[in-house]
Amino acid sequence: MPPARDSDGSADPDDDEDLEEEAPRPRRPARRATRPKGHRPSVRRWQGADDEDDDEELEATPARRRWFPRERHPVYWRARDSLYFEPLVAVAIIVVLVVSLYAYTQNWPPVYVVESESMQHGSSDVLGVINTGDLVLAQRVPVDQITPYVVGLQTGYSTYGEYGDVILYLPNGGGSTPVIHRAILFLQWDPITSTYNATDLSGLKCGNATGAVYATTGTTDGCGLTGLGASNTLYLYGVGWKSVNVCIPLDPALLGKQSGFVTMGDNNIGTGGCGSGNWGLPDQTDGLSTLVETGWIVGVARGMIPWFGAVKLLLEGNAGEVPIQSWEFLGITVVSLILLAFGIHYALRAEGIEDERRKRPEEDDEDEVEDDEPPPGRGRRFLRAIRPWGHGEEEEDVDAPPARTHRPPRGKTGESRRGRPKPRVRRDSKAKSSKSSEDDDL
Asked: Which of 268, 244, 285, 11 is nearest to 119 (CA)?
């Protein structure tokens, strides 16, 4: 407010003294700009020499200048953030699986698909038995560790629902697709006498004895095991899950002049044996192969993955060979695996496997979404980033704490608590003199 003047236009000296005595006008603190949580400005205001506290704050938190500031700075790069993470993980799992199967079977390829129903126990899928569409692991083992059916019958050793081992072999030593059948008996060829020896049958009941397991025609009491030739026939009783009889003519022209295994599928049952009714049909009498030599054996079935081989048969157009139950079990298994994968994913996520450093930026992002005021636009952020100096006294550092303003007590200066100071009005000196004269007259 301008000082009061006398009638002649001169300023009153007392007024000048009063103006000098008035308290200086307090400086209004700058309003703090509302910024998104977690955002740090690129340009800070100019700090005066007397702002020692602000200088300390700036030294503790150095400014970071960016031409194109982003709203969020990731803590570190994670492999699963890549677009190729899922395909690479899938390939890695397949590679580990194949290498593990090869290490277990010592055979390549380690897995084969069952393409026929010769090993099924009936027309439907039976768990624990080799069915069409199953994947069988072919493990390479020494020949002396292969247990035929007649030996397993004595020791109680069984695999896939029957006694003895199931072997994979190449018919007559050729071809690319192996046959998956059970080893029944090993016959040893004697090239001197051109006969066979069936020593695996020793110890079993034979001939006309009650509960006989085998019989050989043309021998004493039907129990001969050596020197068996074209004039002899070997009978096996109660073989397989259907307890059928098996007839094996010991003719070198039929079996071949070599030592090897008599093989048969568990489901290879039909007419055409050595009599009427149903008989077991070995591969050697059915014309599939001669005696299986040890060099023809690809491996022994040592493990099975059910149902998944049906996909290969479907692609080849042989889906009709697969039992209906196998398709049902396959669908249930695939859905269960998918649900299990999602369950493990969310269970681990709930347990907090995320890094703590990465959780904090994610929590800040959630706070930004919940904030009522939207973040500044891209244009404003760009202009704020390229300004080399502050914008007058109104520019401030949002990271620095607000400066405290020390105000004198209200009663001493007569100033209001907020706003401009209260003006002081003085009377004119002439008015004072006239009033004093009037008092004297009274």
From this structure: 268
